Amino acid sequence: MKKITAVYPGTFDPVTYGHLDIIQRASSLFDKVIVAVALNTSKKPLFTEGEREDMLKHVTAKYKNVVVDEFKGLLVDYAKKKNATVIIRGLRALSDFEYEFQMSLTNRKLQPDVNTIFLMPNEKYTYLNSSLVRELAAFKADVSGFVPEYVRKKLSVKLKSL
Ligand code: ADP
Q1: Sign (positive or negative) of CA dihedral 20, 134, 7, 150
Q2: Ligand 1 center from residue 1 Cα (angstroms)
């Protein structure tokens, strides 16, 4: 039987319960899920690639069909290299739609065999993103409802070192 590999790309700076909600859904839908940290975004991340990958590995360890990796360059080239036919993206609100729609159609033009599938998180995570978590943590707010304990500790250490 055909095995389907999906790639879930993102910055994950840091991974939140919103990302984990999507990872859990993808893990139950596909044979293998590669959570891929994008190394070439225009964003200036708080955490290094290694730190972001370490946090992702730690919080996804219980999902046996989930692996963490990184990629540079075009996402569709990376997907092809990994024999992945699905790209996963999370859709939180209408505001995500325009950019995601453009990206998914562009990726399909570049690589027609790869389809983007959008997953919606539990509604309690629809307002959540990594930059909100970074900002709250910088003001020493309690972020334990937004990120796993391991990530909360890494945030606190990181922000102290700045
Ligand atoms: P990117 O720079 O690619 O947007 P992010 O780490 O911000 O990287 O997000 C990666 C993916 O996870 C995107 O598809 C984004 O929409 C999705 N995502 C981020 N936060 C949430 C959330 N709270 N609920 C569902 N999906 C989310």
Answers
A1: negative
A2: 31
Tokens of 30: 């596909």
User: What region does 105 belong to: left with phi over 0, alpha with psi -120 to 50, or beta?
Assistant: alpha
**Are 131 and 23 a contacting pair, CB within 8 Å?**
no
Q: In this structure, are strands 86-90 and 5-10 parallel, antiparallel, or unpaired? A: parallel
Please give the model's pTM, rounded to 2 decimal places.
Answer: 0.96
Q: Is the CB of 25 under 6 A from ligand 1?
A: no
Q: Which of 32, 52, 130, 152 is catalytic?
A: 130
Residue 32 bridge partners (DSSP): 5
- The one catalytic residue among 3, 43, 72, 124: 43
pLDDT, one tens digit per residue, over 102-150 is 999 999 999 999 999 999 999 999 999 999 999 999 999 999 999 999 9
CB contact at 8 A, 145 and 127: no
Is 43 labeled as catalytic in the residue annotation? yes
Ligand 1 pocket residue status of 116, Cβ below 6 Å: no
